[in-house]
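Obj.: predict assembly geometry.
Materials: sequence records (below).
Method: joint structure prediction, all chains together.
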Amino acid sequence: MAGFYKVVNSYDEALQGLTHNMTVMVGGFGLCGIPEGLIKKIYDLGIGGLTCISNNAGVDGFGLGILLEKNQIKTMIASYVGENALFEKQFLSGEMEVKLTPQGTLAEKIRAGGAGIPAFFTPTGYGTVVAEGKETREYNGKHYVLEESFTADFSLVKAWKADTMGNLIYRETARNFNPMIATAGKITVAEVEEIVEPGELDPNFIHTPGIYVDRVIKGTFEKRIEQRTIKTI
Amino acid sequence: MAGFYKVVNSYDEALQGLTHNMTVMVGGFGLCGIPEGLIKKIYDLGIGGLTCISNNAGVDGFGLGILLEKNQIKTMIASYVGENALFEKQFLSGEMEVKLTPQGTLAEKIRAGGAGIPAFFTPTGYGTVVAEGKETREYNGKHYVLEESFTADFSLVKAWKADTMGNLIYRETARNFNPMIATAGKITVAEVEEIVEPGELDPNFIHTPGIYVDRVIKGTFEKRIEQRTIKTI
Amino acid sequence: MALSREQIAQRISQELKDGYYVNLGIGIPTLVANYVPKGMDVLFQSENGLLGMGEFPTEETIDPDLINAGKQTVTAVTGASYFSSAESFAMIRGGHIDLTVLGAFEVDQKGNIASWMIPGKLVKGMGGAMDLVASARNIIVAMAHANKQGESKILKSCNLPLTGVHCVRKVVTDLAVLELREGAFHLLERAPGVSVEDIKKLTEADLYIPEHVPEMAF
Amino acid sequence: MALSREQIAQRISQELKDGYYVNLGIGIPTLVANYVPKGMDVLFQSENGLLGMGEFPTEETIDPDLINAGKQTVTAVTGASYFSSAESFAMIRGGHIDLTVLGAFEVDQKGNIASWMIPGKLVKGMGGAMDLVASARNIIVAMAHANKQGESKILKSCNLPLTGVHCVRKVVTDLAVLELREGAFHLLERAPGVSVEDIKKLTEADLYIPEHVPEMAF
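Observations (raw structure tokens):
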């Protein structure tokens, strides 16, 4: 299917159109399931002023952490950050704005963005700083906060396998935020471990249908482990 | 896992606790992917006054259509109905109340119910009768309608395979409304074609995690076809 | 001469582009799938949960678990995927479908469409039509230009209950191709042998007629 | 004597029931998994997208694609499932988790909990804690009864920024098991060798003391 052949052969092609001050969503939970090569390419290109939406912000020298070295992130939207010294420094100095968002609200805001839902009520954060300035409402005696959805100029995800038409499957907990992020970008790029021919992925078990994916690139992954824990017998 | 063994051996057990005037969600699209035996059992039990949430209402003598024979449905919430004469009669005579809901809004209301979202904004139905009496709001120049979520006393779904812990997978377009409905019932019963041992379903490709499913029963399915269309060469 | 249903579908197929994801409504729109230009790849979405709908099955391959939104047995093409109705309408509502083709009873010059309900007749429901028209980036309506009594269905303002507002962009009827621009239907093409005067007569809406209105080419 | 972290976890494990789906927070709550009573089956949910979290892996089975919400490498039990973060929090927010155990800096008699932010210190974020406390049907807080300066952390009203309101039901500290009923903490059990007086002294909140307060049994 020529019109649906989405494989690109270079990171330059993969990120074509990404420019300063754009909003970029990046999949992954900690260092698990992150599009390593695409992040590295943003670093190499030196694109700055980015608003970055991702559950975490990497560690010193790996993942989104490398973008801090050149101050490429202007605003970081995440649920949990500060696993690295550089982040802490830029956060405290005010060089970078950080908008903390509860993890489930973050996931749902991204899912809503991709699904054409501009806003929804959630119980999360009611009565806390998260609800400040936001509309609240009671349903059946419980209180809810109105949250608006997120979309992005570019969505960068990491998948296990893709076919050339952009259908994706993820592996284990490396799935995390990737499926929703894949739906919420004007341009969605998937960096994957393996690219197969259409028909090789079972249509019954595709996690992200190709309609959401604009470009597919085969990456190589270090898969660095953040907390190496081993059973002690 | 004793505590997670959810298989029941009779339809009586499967529907235990279902009583008159309850709200019941039923999976399926037309006659595709419907819990045939569970519907039949409601008919046999003669439970009435039901509020039934399902995309369609079956045909004469099959699917939800059989519940009309004994006037068991008081209120029908669906996106498309009237494929059967009995439905038409009860609808027009006012014996049954019918609340038509756009298909995507119906799917999202059920998904929201299971996901703890009491209400959301959707563009669907703005400017039509569907939006009458509902709050509307503008986001980025586009108009949206506030829709509230659905939950049910019982959710009845049809799956292809279950393991004994209630993990489910669906097959092809027989998936349709079943996954959301599985999440939105106080008690969720899955009628399936095959029951396997835990571990036999790939954990990477489970459509409905067992946490949503309370009871599993092995059914036998006629799988009646509504519109038999064959290629004419 | 007025176009047949097949010819309307054939004309609409000229609006397809390589790599388009397309949702076709029931009726004439379904026929568009038969006229995909050679060498062009298009994927059809069926809102019950299938991306990559193929042709009807044979007696041997018929499968009750595999139907389209019209509840007809179908097949799936290579590279297809199945998903839930919630995911399907997330796809639709999120604006991921490139082109939606659907039928209508009436359209008007405000871009409104009425396609689901005729007061006094049995109401079967809107199915997915309201979601599709509220969400699609690009909607083409396939319909008859007038009813059997010769009354226009291309109106200043719809009479029937609406399916959606401000959403119609292009209309292909048995007589003409119309595009809605700034509150008026622009007459882009006419059916072979049908005169501009014929079309004017059967169009209640404001109609902008360019100097040259070519005949449709097939 | 005050309980150790392990003993707090052990006491909380008595609240488990066969067939429970449980989410354990970071710290003491994680240890609860080590004390599941024999013959009882419990499934642990990890909010990054795993239902059925198992023990830590061996050097041979370690897998960077398989971590828990604390970013530690883990394993999955038989019958586990993986899903997206949106699905995971749908599960949490929708009230499908039977029991949530999490740590806290402070709790108060209105059922409020503060666990994510200390002004003046670096704020790392709330992660999934706000979703968990806003949604769980059944929340147990595992925490120290007082800080090192002997100041109570069981308060009339939390001082720190809140994680959630009106959500705490039960608190297990190094000194006591408390249950919140009608605006007061009821002292259900005391740690072995700890007197009711000791607990009263270190509890700022309104404390209801029944006639008989048994020692915890392990």
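Conclusions so far: Chain D has one domain: 5-204.
To do: check interface contacts against the pulldown list.
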